[in-house]
Every structure is written in structure tokens, then in C-alpha cells.
Amino acid sequence: SMPSEMLLKIFSYLDAVSLLCVGCVNKHFYHLASDNGIWLKIYSNCFQPKRTVWGSNSEQTEAVSLGCTALHSRKPGYWKKEYIFKQIAAVKARVMQLVKPVDPYTGLPCRNREAIKVFDLSWIIVLKDKNGKEHIIEKANLSFKDTSVTILWHSTSWPRLDILSTLKLFGVMPLLPDQSRAANKDGPRQRSLIAEYHLSKLTESSVTLGADKLVQLFNLNPGLLIGLWKDKNEIAFVTASLHYHQLLERSILGSATVEYTLSPHKPILDDIDPEYGLHNYNLHLDMHGGNCTFLCGTFKNLFCRRDDIENEYLRLTVVSLKDNTKHLPLTGTVGFSWETDVFKGNVKGCYVMDVTLLDETGKPFWCFSAPASIRLSSRASSLFDYMGHMYTTDYADSEGKICFELVWLEETKEYFIVNLVLYISIKKVNKWYGTNY
């Protein structure tokens, strides 16, 4: 019942974040909280006009300098949108500054943890049921590795799996991060869609990675792991693995409805004859499960020749069966550790694989973080140096494949990597270099 003029006077004392919150109360408050006069004042205080206006009262003159005519000629909410767009542009510029420093060890941005803290970045999953209702799961635990961050969600109120249609993974940050640091979690936030997964017939269409006494693990590409309770076939937890390469851009700079599109790579000038092949590539490989790391290593000076093309792939040999001096042990018992508020467990043979392949200039060429599992091989071992069963583990996407062969040593209770090969798609190589293999 309060007159609009009085409400406008009260709203004029609010800051930008409070105005956005007030606008969510009802339609009447929304229109009043979008008043051009209020937002013009906020805009002019934050973004100084380019031209200087001389006068005794600089604050009032400054507002007038932006134009009384502009104030009345603009559509309602114009200066609110302008203010928000400029703030978002400033955030994008800060993101690009933070990702510039590169870790010489991995070739990736080295200030990811700092950026996550600065922007108050978090991740949520949104489950949509077949009736269109959304269920938001926010509580998450983060685990940082050299080249990735693993996010674990668990809840006591998951909706039933049989009524769900899709799962969306979002990066979330305050709409105005500089002003929202002291605000509560209910302040205005923006979402950036990272990936969308279809859950219909999950147990039939997804890859089964393994199980323990309580849960069964299913893999959804890219990088999503879903744990289902064995008895009830309901969700126990969800884990996402995000590689540091383009992590901030995908988590911050996208929209709520469309996945962020990575900037296209401009082919580098390469005057080397394609017959020479690929040389001086470096691979950084992490294998981990929860808090345990089984392997963390860098392999330098990888190469392949034109003759190494096989079935539309170029082959980069990292560890060879023939050279037992480079065979590698996996530290500890390989398994994926999980926990909820009540239960915890470990699924043996499952882990998360982080791959960072750098080209000869040190730029990330092929990067991913994804769940994987170790399986018994059907091929008998032909190695005389090892007495044990052969196992395999692999990963594939549109850009390449990575294949492992391992031997299990019963005496020492450990796996040894005896063969490790990367297969890079010829299409990927041709697009990267602008050549024709």
C-alpha cells in the first residue's frame, strides 16, 4: 500500500546487490528496483564518464553529464543492464589475467586455486525430473590435484533415479563478485553451463566401472561419475573431474543455457615437412582416486614419424614393452575412495586419469580428466621379467585414445605399467597445424 514514490526513495539508498535481491520479491518491486534513475547513479559512481564536467557539486553534475535526456529516453532497466554487463566484462578481463601465468611443469594456468577463491566460485548439479521439476544439489567437497579438481556431491535427499531425465553441471559465482563477498549465499548468482547428461536408461547406456559392497559406479563422458546404491538403485553420490585447461572459462564465462565454447586454436606456423612427424611433445599424467595418488609423472620428448600413422591415428609411444627400464609401478592400492554423510567405501580398480599433452611450443594440445578402471586382459603375458596377469585400462574421445597395459605382481601387490601409447587423431593434428597428414 506504500506509494511508489516512497518505495523509490527507499530503494535509492540500496546498493546494487540489495536492489537485485529486492527485485525478486514481486513484479511491482522488480519494476521499481529497475528504475533508470537509481541505476544511473550506481553506474556513474562505479564507471567514471570519459569527459570531465566542471561544477560546484561534482556528484550531481556527473549524473547530469550522463544525460537527463538519456535517462528518460532509455527503456526501463537499461542502466541496470548496462551496469551488470560492464561488471561481467570486468570479471572476464580479470579471469583472462589470472589464467595468463603458466606453470612451467604442467603448461597450465597456475593460479586456479586463487581464482576460485577470488571469484567465490562453486559448482552445482541440477537434476531435472520427467515432470520438469528441478532439484539442485549444492553441497560439494573439492579435491585439488596437479592438473584437475575433483568435485564430490552427496545428499540425503536425492530424487529417485527412475523419475529423472537430465543432469546439468554448472559453475556458479556471485553476479557481482566484488560486492558480494560479505553477502550471504542467497545473493544474486550467475550460472555457467559446463555439461548436460541424459539419465534415462543410465544403467543400460553408461559404462560400468566397478562396484563394492554398497555402491556401483557408472561413467558418463565427459568426466562424470555416478554412484548408485546397490540395493535401491538410487543415487548415492556424484563426482565430476574438471581439468585445469579452460576450467575457469567454462565455469565462469558461459551462460545458464548454452555451454561455453572454447576459443578456436589458430594453426601455428610450421614449416617442417609433415614427413618429419611430431616431435618434442610432453605428457603429464596423473592417476588418482580420492585422496590417494597412484602415479604423477612427466614424460618428455615424445615423438612419432609419418610412418606411425595407423587407422587415422598418429602413435606416440610413452612406455614400451621392449624397454623394461622405463616400466613404472603404481603406488598404493588402486581404488576410488568415496564417502557420504553416513557411509564410505573404496571401489577397487577404479581411478581418475588426468592427461595433459603439450605440443613442441609448450601449449596444451590434448587435455582431459576422466574416470577409468583397470580390467583383466584377455591376452596372455609374453613378458619374461614379470610373473603375473596382464591388465588393461584406456580412454577415448573425438581427439584421441590412450591405452595402458599393466602387469599385476602378486609378491609385491602392485601394478606395473609395461606399455603406454597415445593415439592422436589425424584430424586433430591437421586442424592444429593447418597441415595435411
From TrEMBL:
Residues annotated as signal peptide: 1-16
Top-level taxon of the source organism: Eukaryota
InterPro entries: F-box-like_dom_sf, F-box_dom
Keyword DNA-binding recorded: no
Keyword Signal: yes
GO annotations of cellular component type: SCF ubiquitin ligase complex
Alphabetical UniProt keywords: Signal
Annotated F-box domain residues: 1-42
Pfam families (UniProt xref): F-box-like
Protein name: FBX15 protein
Organism of derivation: Ceuthmochares aereus
Lineage: Eukaryota, Metazoa, Chordata, Craniata, Vertebrata
Gene: Fbxo15
